[in-house]
Design goal:
There is one protein chain. The chain is an alpha+beta fold. Helices cover 54% and strands 16% of the residues. Helix 3 packs parallel to helix 5. The chain is elongated.
Length: 125
């Protein structure tokens, strides 16, 4: 089990993660909810890293994203999002707070994914 956790933590791409998940399903059968949540957490980690996000805090009422200095996101696009959406707010030079109702892990993951998509929309790959 420890080797699986190490491989999970070391997965750098969504393909690596998908391969590991398929291997786990082959070995153990359908993954329980907790294991599925762990896989989703690592998928979000990989997507967030590509957007320059180093920390995510998600609670029932808000989501906080902390960025690396000079993230690969267009600042003008972020300003536009802040002006259009009252639920988005900067809480420091490298932090974004999104107010949203997220009562469970599924809604939090959905909100995180949607926020990252909004931030990176139109960005060069």
């Amino acid at each position: 089990r420890l080797s699986l956790y190490k491989r999970l933590a070391g997965s750098e791409t969504l393909d690596e993660l998908r391969t590991l998940q398929e291997e786990m399903i082959d070995r153990f059968g359908k993954l329980p909810d907790q294991a599925q949540a762990l896989m989703e957490t690592h998928r979000l980690r990989i997507v967030a890293k590509a957007a320059g996000i180093i920390k995510i805090d998600a609670h029932t009422e808000a989501l906080s994203l902390q960025f690396i200095p000079n993230p690969p996101i267009d600042a003008a696009h972020v300003i536009e999002l802040l002006q259009k959406n009252r639920n988005f707010r900067l809480t420091g030079p490298e932090k974004l707070r999104v107010t949203a109702k997220m009562p469970d892990i599924h809604s939090r993951a959905t909100q995180i994914r949607a926020t990252i998509h909004l931030l990176t929309k139109g960005q060069p790959s």
